[in-house]
Every structure is written in structure tokens, then in C-alpha cells.
Amino acid sequence: MPQPFLLAAADSPLLGNLQVLKAGTPTRREQLQRLGITTVADLLLHLPRTYEDLSAIRTIATLKAGEVQVVQGEVVEIDGRRLADGRSVVSIVINDGSPGSLEGSWFNQPFISGQFNYGQRVSFTGKPKWFRDHWQMANPKWEKLDAGAALPAPGIVPIYPMTEHLRPESLRTIMRQAVDRFAPQTVDIVPDRLLRERHFPSLHAAFRNVHFPASMEAARIARERFSYEEFLVLQAALALRRRDLRDQQNAPSLTCTPEIDARIRRLFPFALTVDQDQAIRDICFDLASKRPMQRLLQADVGAGKTAVAVYAMLVAIANKHQTALMAPTEVLARQHAHTLDRYLAKSRVRRALLTGALTAAERRKLLADLAEGNLDLVIGTQALVSEDVKFARLGLAVIDEQHKFGVHQRAKMRSSGNDPHYLVMTATPIPRTVALTVFGDLDCSTMHQLPPGRKPVRTRIVPKNQRQRLYQQLAEELKQGKQAYVVCPLVEESANLDLTAAQQHYEDLKASVFKDFRLGLLHGRMAESGKDEVMKQFREGKIDLLVTTMVIEVGVDVANATWMLIEHAERFGLSQLHQMRGRISRGEAAGNCILFANPTTDEARNRLRIFTRNNNGFTLAEEDAKLRGLGEFFGARQHGLGELRFGDILADRELLQKARRDAIALVADDAGLSKPENRLLRQMVIQRYGTTLDLATVG
Q: Is residue 47 packed enough to be buried (19+ CB in 10 Å), middle (13-18) or exposed (0-12)?
């Protein structure tokens, strides 16, 4: 079901089909359908992708190449001829009294020459280019002018996304009807006060200005108004969800005394950074409240967010409550279990790992212990929110988001009488404006600082002819006791893709340059027991070189692994590359990340250039989102909020911030958006996000 963008009653002509317009022929309706237009509302919301500004008539002497311009002049030359390849060309040259001349050219339209007369005044509209000693326009639009009359300024011409056989002039005619007849029937959901404060037009005026603007400035403001409304609806939904979670639910108060703090810190084999300490202060303040904590913890790769999450879980356990850690994959769940075993080796915390590898009897025993309060901490995947998983006293749920759990998927793990506190972690840094949108209902703690002694990774692209020399250099490092990853984009060879596959690459390396070393293979298709065994051997130093796929993208932590070779690096996004690079240089030794790449596009070359020059995950995440778009950045709408139709949360960040501030203020003043001036906004919020964000109780 597509998201609604206009409020309308069920019998409104806005929701009627296009037969009410001159778009009623089956052929025209089929053309519009290909553009996703089936109703009048769809037509109104089919906004121009750009505009041609024809409001100013140029002289030939002031023309600029590549821009659509209008020129008026007198016909001084008419020429029709046939070319050697059989095509015909008609050339009409005009002069307007300024220096130079303009030639209009039409191919395979010999009849055109009969339309012109010497001395006739005409207008040409098109994109000129300079050719030898004069200007040319290919297939310009043209119009006859009465003697002595000036061409009325054509104004701003909207350019729409089009489909085959639908002429731009036809669509503009249909759109003019729709705007004139039906735009006045649209309903404004943005409160009048906000429209005045933000200097935005009414919805009716915005439709007129966006489709047929009097100036480019009017078009810009109208487009901003549509983006603002979209942001306002989303931010109001997130603000309402936040209010609902905070005000309507009760959580246990989990306090962190100096004694608890000292006991927890003794378990860590390192001192926490300033950023980690600040995040812990934020979390402890939230946990002490009876309102459920809703906090996002994001950190650059290697900045130690897992240690902060462990601290939070131990606070809950010290307050006699259970805690759950939910990971997006079993590989990462097992890695978290291994990390917790290391941190909690000297503690009495009762913990367990819930995965699909458990036997039926083992699962029953674990679930019984959980329900009876015999377990303090459980680690698992989304299986933790299954119907048969019951907690005795759940105090804190930690969700390792990794952009894989959308807003609507966040766990609702209730225990008797109380709701738990929630701590959401992201596995990759995300731009601030993205965080305000995708995680807009959460408070945010951000950590940039790396632990003392951690050295940055050296990253470089190695050309094909230096591969063998690089292998020899790596072999020397392995002889010194270091370990390395070789990352491949595929598990097996593909007939359709000329890519190095992990299985074959493993065999090749094992039989040649690294035959004297211990090699391992890890990929997502292996059985869980096989993955566990390979990672155990790698951690214990029994494997020198691990050939793997992106299964090691997050979570894997082997301090002795200081080298990473990435095959076909151009196939990965910036955030993926940064995540993989984050698997090395996790000890005190500096790491080396080597990229083998064959980029064939400017975008791929630019992406790799940015990656080799930058170690800051937040900067890379913003560049990644710009380059690939948010859909690719998150992957298949996994952020759960659907697609924005008008706004761009990266390009329109200031507009997003304004909408967020306005939405928070609205909900603070009117908790259910139930005041008369806010009711239409509330209706749209529920219509668009009610199910996704579980807003059934709003108002």
C-alpha cells in the first residue's frame, strides 16, 4: 500500500480516476499509469524534476552554451540539402542585430524549409552550441512573430519525469487542468501558524507554484514546502512515539551507585575513554528513571561501544534485573558471547547464548531458566522476541541495530508489570541527519575517540602488477607471527560476474604463494558449528591467513590480525569497506588495508579515493549515503520508515532540523495533537506511520 501524501475523503474527486480530465482515453491513462499516476492526487503529486527558465529573451551575442534559451530574430538564410549518408538537413539562420548569427538545424524534416521566408521574424528555443564561427541549435522549438511584435515571455517551463509516447506538452496541458480545478480542493495539514513562521505558501498555492511558477524562486519555495511537510509528518510521528514510550510505559529504576561502578570497572582490562565515560553517564541517568530509556549508542569502528553496552547490562544485573543482547546475525551473536565471556570471566553473571544450533532439550532448559530468573543475561538474534521467550524480570534490552532492525522491528520484550529500558547500537556510524530520521525517537550518544595506543590503519590501492610483491611482503609478516584476512565478495565462482570467489581463492592461495602457512576459509553458507570452529582457531592463532566473505564485516575482534587484503574493493560501499577495515589494527600494532580493485566508473574511483584518504567513519558514512542514496546505504528499506518522496535528508538537513524542532514543540504543547489546529496533522501521521510506529494510542 503506497504511503498517502494528501488527506482526502473517500469520495473526494482527488481520489477519483483521470476520466474527469482530458486524460480519459485508454491510451493516455495507460501512459500515465506507467508513471504511477492513476488518480488526480497522483497527478498533482507528480512534481517537475527540473525547470527551463525561458522568462528572459537572449540576444545572440549573450548566448551561453548548454542552457535552454530563447532568441528572436529575422530569417537571413534558408538552406535545404541532402547529406552523403542519405539524410536531409534544413538550416535556417537568423540574426537579431547583435554580433553573430544563430543557425537552427533539422534533420530528415525537409518540409521545415517551406515554413520559413526571408525577412520573417521568428523565435528559436533550445540549447545552443558554438560551431566554428557561429551558434547552432539542433531541432529548436520555433514560433512565427508578427512584424514588429515581441514574443511574449514563455516563463518557467516545468520538465516532468516522462514515459514513452507521452508528449511533454500533453502532460503539461493535463496538469494545468488538474491544478486549476482540483488544487483548490486540497487540505492543508500543516498548522497555519507554522506556515506563517516558516514563510511557506498554502498547499493550494504550493501546487500552483511548483507546477507553473511565476519565478524560479517561487518554484524553490514551493518544493521546500512539500519537503518540510513530509519531514514534519515523520518527525511528529517520531515525537509521538517517543512521548508514548516515555509517558505511557513504566520501567524499573536501575541505579548505578559508586560501589556498582567500581565493581564493573574492575572487570575491564583497560581504562575507559572520555567518550565512553560520557556515554555511560548518559545511560546511567536514563536507567535511573522510571521512564524507559530509549537511547542510540553510535561509535566509530573500534571506539568501544560494546564495552559501554556491557557496562549498562551489568548495571541492570546489579539491580537484580535480567538483560538481553539481540544481534542481527548468529555470527555476531556468537562474537558478542565470546566478548562477554572475556569481560565477565571473573564475575558471577549467569549468561547463555540462544541460537538455532541448540537442541530442543537445550532450548527448553534455557527458556525455563530465563522464565524462572535463573539467567541474568541472554544473547541471541531476533529469536529473542519469539512468543515462547519469557523473562522473569527484564530490565534492559540491548539491540545491536546494524541497520538490520527497522523502527517497526525493535523488540517489544515485556516482563511482568514493567517495560524494559532500550539501548540501540549501530554497527556503522551514520550521518547526524540520518540518525534524526531513522532513529528520531531515540536520544543519541556518540563516541568518536579511539582507545589509547590504537593506531590508524594504513590504506592503499595496489595495482595488479604489484600483487606478487605484496604477497611476499605479507608472507614476511606472517612469518613474524602476524595474522591476516583476505576478503572476497563471493563464496563461489559466478558465470555472470568476473569476481574472485572465496572458495577458489582459498584453494589458489593454499596451493601457491602461501602453501607454507595455515589457511582458513569462512563464509556465510557454512554450518554454524563450522564457522565457530574456524573463528576459534583464528582467535587462538592456529590460522595465519583467513580467506573470508563479508561475514566478518562486524564484530570479529582478533587483535593479532594486522593485515587485510580486499578483492574487488570497488564492489563494496564506503561503510562496508570501513567496517571491514575496522577488523584490523585492534591491538597496538598498526594495520595495513590493501585494496585490489578494477573500478570502471568515476563513482567507483571516487569512492575508493575517499576511502584511502579518510579514517573517520562518520565522514565516510555521510559520503557513502550521498554516493549510493539512503536505500542502498541501509539496504532494501531496512530502516523501516519507507521512502521519502520529496525531501532529501542529506541535502535538506536544515529543513529537516526545522521540521524536527517544530514537531517536538507541537507534541510538547499538545501531547496527542488533539487541538483543532493540529488534528489534520495527527490524521496524516496516523495514516502514514500509525502501523509502522505503533501509534494506535495517539490522541
A: middle
β-strands 421-426, 155-159: how paired? unpaired
Per CATH, domain 56-153 is 3.40.50.150: no
So where are the chain's domains?
56-153, 291-447, 458-614
**Position 628: which residue type?**
R
At 238, list the grid cell. Answer: 517520531
- Asked if the domains at 56-153 and 291-447 fall in one CATH topology, the answer is no
**Helix spans in 134-198 (H):** 168-182, 192-197
A 10 A CB-CB count for 645 gives 13
**CATH 3.10.450.540 for domain 291-447:** no
Q: Which residues contact 318 (CB under 8 A, 6 or more apart)?
A: 256, 260, 263, 264
Q: Phi/psi at 333 (nearest 5 deg)?
A: -60, -40
Q: How far apart (Å, rounded) are the C-alpha atoms in residues 279 and 277?
A: 5
Question: What span, in angstroms and rounded, lies between the C-alpha atoms of 82 and 444?
Answer: 70
**How far is residue 395's CA from residue 252's CA, in Å, rounded to a whole number?**
6
Contacts (Cβ under 8 Å, ≥6 apart) of 183: 44, 203, 204, 207, 208
Whole-angstrom Cα Rg for the chain: 32
Residue 226, classed as helix, strand or coil, is: helix
CA 361 to chain centre: 42
Cβ burial 107-135 (10 Å sphere, 16+ → b, else e): eeeeebbeebeeebbbbbbbbbeeeeeeb
Question: What does 9-74 look like in DSSP terms, one character per residue?
Answer: -TT-GGGSBGGGTTT-SHHHHHHHHHTT--BHHHHHT---SEEEEESSEEPGGG--TTS-EEEEEE
- Measured over the CA atoms of residue 421, residue 427, residue 432 and residue 435, the dihedral's sign is negative
End-to-end C-alpha distance for the chain, whole angstroms = 24
Which three cell numbers mark 183? Answer: 488544487
Block mean pLDDT (10 aa), the chain, length 699: 67 84 79 92 93 82 89 92 89 93 93 90 90 92 67 72 86 92 94 96 96 94 96 91 76 95 93 94 96 89 89 97 90 86 91 89 94 95 84 92 52 59 83 75 86 83 91 93 90 56 88 92 82 86 91 70 92 86 81 92 91 88 76 49 78 91 94 93 89 61
Residue 425, H or E segment: strand 421-426
Q: What is the CATH T-level fold of the domain 458-614, as seen in this structure?
A: Rossmann fold (3.40.50)
Extract the C-alpha cell encoding 115: 515554413
- The number of C-alpha atoms within 13 Å of 671 and in the hemisphere containing its C-beta is 8
